[in-house]
Design goal:
Helix content: 25-40%
Strand order of the largest sheet: 1-2-3-7-6
Strand content: 25-35%
Number of strands: 15
Largest sheet: 5 strands, antiparallel
Radius of gyration: 17 Å
Distance between the termini: 23 Å
Shape: globular
Number of helices: 6
Mean pLDDT: 97
Structural class: alpha+beta
Low-confidence stretches: none
Length: about 240
């Protein structure tokens, strides 16, 4: 598989074209950022660690029958994925109240929720990813009513797979975000899970101590960010 021109450079990943227009390479860098890019740093081993965690999680989701863009790992930092046309919304599931939800509603961080809460956010750094509802998404043309239903159903299915996986490792899956899209070579086909699932895009707390094992360690200057990421990998069984 030949890596060709750069297609997109995000905050922590770079996407490259390949000699197959239906496939792209997702390169995980050591860059990390928070607060819409106002806090940035280079964290050694971050790219390779996230690449391996993501591959492990995508494999578990594939085994559970959830279609993703993941094809295979190419090397320490590169993963081959199907090229997608992404829907510009983030799907967030909250199992425990934390982060923006705690601030928005004045609820103590760490409050358990009786059942998972689903939220949509519009992907826009300039607008700070505002909370949106089904009507915004449908009427503004970001996704159809059918796609909205599919994203909700798939996200809850992901939660049913991952929550017990992390629980068995003594980790609370507090919340996380997912993104979906259609394969470029099958634009009318089913939605596929895209982007990544790593400690960059979720909250993971040690069940016994409530220690943060995710990107909040960077946001809140708690230190040993990658050490905790790698601890998560070891505990869930992701090979490093």
């Amino acid at each position: 598989m030949e890596k060709r021109q750069q297609l997109y450079r995000g905050k922590a990943k770079t996407v490259y074209a390949t000699d197959d227009p239906a496939l792209v390479i997702m390169h995980f860098r050591d860059d990390t950022s928070a607060f819409d890019g106002t806090k940035v740093a280079q964290l050694p081993q971050k790219g390779e660690t996230n690449n391996k965690i993501n591959a492990f999680i995508m494999g578990k989701l594939g085994e559970a029958g959830i279609a993703t863009h993941f094809v295979r790992v190419l090397n320490e930092r590169d993963t081959l994925v199907r090229a997608l046309k992404m829907i510009p919304v983030e799907c967030v599931v909250r199992n425990i109240c934390a982060g923006s939800m705690a601030k928005r509603y004045g609820i103590a961080e760490g409050t358990p929720l009786a059942e998972p809460i689903f939220e949509f956010f519009y992907k826009s750094d300039a607008l700070h990813d505002p909370l949106v509802n089904d009507d915004h998404i449908r009427i503004l043309g970001w996704a159809s009513a059918d796609e909205i239903g599919q994203m909700k159903a798939l996200t809850h299915k992901v939660n049913a797979v991952l929550q017990p996986l992390f629980s068995r490792a003594g980790i609370d899956l507090v919340d996380y975000k997912l993104e979906f899209g259609h394969a470029l070579d099958d634009p009318q086909g089913a939605l596929l899970l895209g982007d990544e699932f790593t400690p960059d895009g979720c909250r993971l707390w040690d069940h016994a101590t409530q220690e943060k094992l995710d990107k909040d360690r960077f946001r809140r200057d708690l230190g040993d960010v990658i050490g905790r990421y790698r601890e998560v990998a070891r505990r869930i069984g992701a090979p490093l």
